[in-house]
Amino acid sequence: MTRENLADASDTLESAADETSDDDAAERLTSLADQLDSLATRDRDPDHGRLARIENALNDLEDSDVTEQVQSAHESVVAFRETVEGV
Question: Where is this region: Disordered (predicted)?
Answer without folding.
Answer: 1-27
